[in-house]
Amino acid sequence: MKSASRLFIVLFGCLSSFTMALDMPTQRVILTVSGDMDNMLQDSQVKFDLPMLEALPQYSVTTNNPWTKGLHTYRGFSAIDLLAALNANGDVLEVTALNKYMTRVPVSDFVEHGAIFATHRDGVPMSIRNLGPIMLIYPFDQNESLKSEIYFGRSIWQINHIKIVPSSE
Predict the structure, then answer these.
(1) Predicted structure pTM score
(2) Are residues 91 and 99 in contact, defined by beta-carbon separation less than 8 angstroms?
(3) Cβ atoms 78, 116 nearer than 8 A
(4) CATH number for position 51
(5) What is the pLDDT of residue 44?
(6) With contact defined as beta carbons under 8 Å apart, do 107 and 83 qualify?
């Protein structure tokens, strides 16, 4: 665990140099982020459209999962890069879906387990009908320990809001 924490610190330090201009969305807003972000008012929110999320570094996960048939390749962004772009602090994300389902996800899941916020499945943007516009996905096939109720419960889909929870909460 100690080495994983060290890896997280090194990775986060490297990625924190990544910044993106937070312009106003020009397309339909698909994600709102709130919470512990530096240089923002406490109740501030940042809204993202798909091109803004695609401007973040992109990662892929190819895996089977309990909600879709067959092997699929998911592409999207890491919470680590999102936090760095927002100059945000937090150990936990409260992730909420369109139906108001909410789960708490440790930021460490993105480093230790390779989770991503997927916006594309098999090269196509994910629609609401197909578990989009954003789905948190883990590489279930690469790590048997991820095939548990803990990670299945964190694998939320139809994500529309992320709250960054300060480290002290």
Answers:
(1) 0.84
(2) no
(3) yes
(4) 3.90.420.10
(5) 80
(6) yes
